[in-house]
Amino acid sequence: MRSSHSSRRPALALTALALLLADAGLAAGTGDIGGIDPSVAPGNEFFLYANGTWLKQTDIPPDRSSFGPAQVLADLTRERIAGLLKSAQSAASGSSTRQIGDYYAAYLDEAQQERLGLEPLRPLLARIEAISDRRALARALGATLRSDVDVLNSTNLHTPHLFGLWVAQDLDDPTRYSPFLLQGGLTMPDRDYYLNPAPRMADIRSQYQAHVAAMLSLAGITDPASRAGRIFELEKRIAAAHWTRAASEEVTKGNNHWSAGAFAKQAPGLDWQAYFAAAGLAAQPTFVVWQPSAVTGIAALVGSEPLDTWKDYLRFHLLEEYADVLPRRFGDESFKFNGQVLSGTPQRLARWKEAIDATDLALGEAVGQLYVARYFPPSEKARAEAMVHNLLAAFATRIDKLEWMAPQTRARAKAKLAALKVYVGYPDHWRSYSALRVLRTDAFGNQRRAELFDYHYNLAKLGKPVDRSEWAMTPQLVNAVNLPAMNTINFPAAILQPPYFDPQRDAVMDYGAIGATIGHEISHSFDDQGALFDASGRLANWWTPQDFAHFQAAGQRLVEQFNAYHPFPDIAVNGKQTLSENIADVAGLSAAYDAWHMTLQGAPPASAGGFTPEQLFFLSYAQSWRTKVREPALRRQVVTDGHAPAQYRADTVRNLDPWYAAYKVVPGQALYLSPAERVRIW
């Protein structure tokens, strides 16, 4: 994936078109020359060389935790959507356009939310109060199961509900969907926030308990401090059962099929029959349990921890989940911890921005259909598809040239590449939201109904043929994704525009920016996880033992390379946790360089702006990662994210031979690697 990190709620983004060329990093024709810091030697810190002056001159806006071209572009997208949603409020009643207009208007109506107070929550709070035994507790917990596991974002494999459900292609049988059950139950981003003894983490834990108490107090719940302490201790015990992020990424360890009847024996403590019935899964015969020991440990806590503690836990999580559609004091308190403490963001988003994000989260493809019709012309789709074609051809050529790969492995790799489905801009078929009830005066109800609508939409896939054409992202998202089990890639329309993709500049710049991203996503089919899936998406080893050993050895060298990066003296990048993305960066950038050369058809490339074309290619790549991040957000990213911080991703160039020639990098410089040390995987 392109993104580096995310906020508490998925966001479309962040300023105006005027900033795009001034601050985003890539001007037409050449790189952002003014953003370069010529005092830095490219061979010592290439990211700082390409972006140093921009970093010195740029302030992060107060309502965000990071800033760079991706955020600027996402902000532009958000402003465009604001115009679409304002018009949508007067669309024909009953249309999908009117649905998004009404959802947006209801979210903006804070006066109505103040008038209602906690009334929308009363029935749900009453259900929690009525829990009298473990079976009733299991039913209450099952009713909260949602398809909200953030498998596409940087807080991967995390859900605040006790467990998360992800309906996806079965890894053993690619012809059918399976429900994947994943660990959950934590409010903070990762187990490390509960268990790491470092003083910084201890301070966050203290502030978290204060936040829990404040939320309970706002709701009029008595003895909030004591209850907050018990809630925290329960979550800490849940965290102790959790797998680490790196362990959760090991596909072969996560592919565990349990029958519904096996849960009682393998994870006692939770009444699974009652849980699954409340979750609408009573008839489901099997599940894929991704972190089995975590599921076992969490289930045991359901059976052992005091019932009153679980009831307080459910009350707090209910308040936290719906904080933004309750009276503003709840949203402000939630932001105080989730935004300010965890990410260092000083200021909450303006309400209209939150409203756009919420509408997009609830009715994403309906919003996307309007966005594409207005802002993504067929000519840009065709231009992007041509670049995808070139990148696929370059990757195929690279496979052919791998001297270490046996013929049978090469043939299977080529077959997998040929079967890869790449979707550009938007899906072929739009999702219908006609069954979702949206009321202009009910922001709370709209959010709750949208969550349940999405959950049941995913449950309905079970028992049906797998649809490889379904998108995992909306067209208006500034990102891209590879789904290895589906062997498909999504390139949303919003990322296919300047500064990443610009028809007004030389193609070499596009290949260094969006070309490297396209190559990155293609390469995910062949990273340490993607390489475990065959052309059909089945989890199957298609390698010879010797070839796979070579592949793993190269990956280990990349792990060691990234383990050496220390964004802060007390914290290092986890090379294992970020390996998939790092492999994709190296391979994708290499393929993009080759694809650009293929477009020249033997003609010598022209220099521009005092830079050689090769220099422009690598400069474009480094400036595409131009990002400034607040310290708490960067620390959070290092702990929870599968992506390395942007500065180290830009320095991926050190593994490519042409970069050394382009910038005259020599032994003794900090980024220099001898030819034998450079990681060459694909």
Describe this structure in words.
It contains 29 helices and nine strands. 52% of the residues are buried. The model is unreliable at 2-30 (pLDDT under 50). The chain has two domains: 31-60 and 376-429 and 469-663, Collagenase (Catalytic Domain), CATH 3.40.390; 118-325, Neutral endopeptidase , domain2 (Neutral endopeptidase, domain 2, Orthogonal Bundle). It is 51% helix and 6% strand. The chain has 682 residues and is mainly alpha-helical. The strands form three sheets. It has a four-stranded mixed sheet. The protein has helices at residues 17-23, 46-57, 69-88, 96-108, 110-116, 122-129, 134-142, 192-195, 199-218, 224-241, 245-248, 251-254, 263-266, 272-278, 292-304, 307-321, 328-343, 351-362, 364-375, 378-400, 407-419, 443-459, 507-523, 545-563, 579-600, 613-624, 631-640, 646-650, 657-663; strands at residues 66-67, 163-169, 177-183, 257-259, 286-289, 421-425, 481-483, 488-492, 628-629. It is globular. Helix 3 (69-88) packs across helix 4 (96-108) and helix 23 (507-523) packs across helix 25 (579-600).
Provide a short characterization of the protein structure.
With 682 residues, the protein is mostly helical.
Spell out the key features of this protein.
Neutral endopeptidase, domain 2, 682 residues, four-stranded mixed β-sheet, Collagenase (Catalytic Domain), three-stranded mixed β-sheet, mainly alpha, 9 strands, single chain, 29 helices
Shape: globular
What is the CATH level 1 assignment of the largest domain? Alpha Beta
CATH homologous superfamily name of the largest domain? Collagenase (Catalytic Domain)
**Order of strands side by side in the largest beta sheet?**
2-3-5-4
CATH topology category name of the largest domain: Collagenase (Catalytic Domain)
Total number of helices: 29
Helix content class: 40-55%
Mean pLDDT: 92
Percentage of residues in strands: 5-15%
C-alpha Rg (nearest Å): 25 Å
Separation of the first and last Cα atoms: 18 Å
Number of strands: 9
Please state the second-level CATH architecture of the largest domain: 3-Layer(aba) Sandwich
What's the number of domains?
Answer: 2
Helix/strand/pairing category: mainly alpha
**Unreliable residue stretches:** 2-30
State the major sheet: 4 strands, mixed
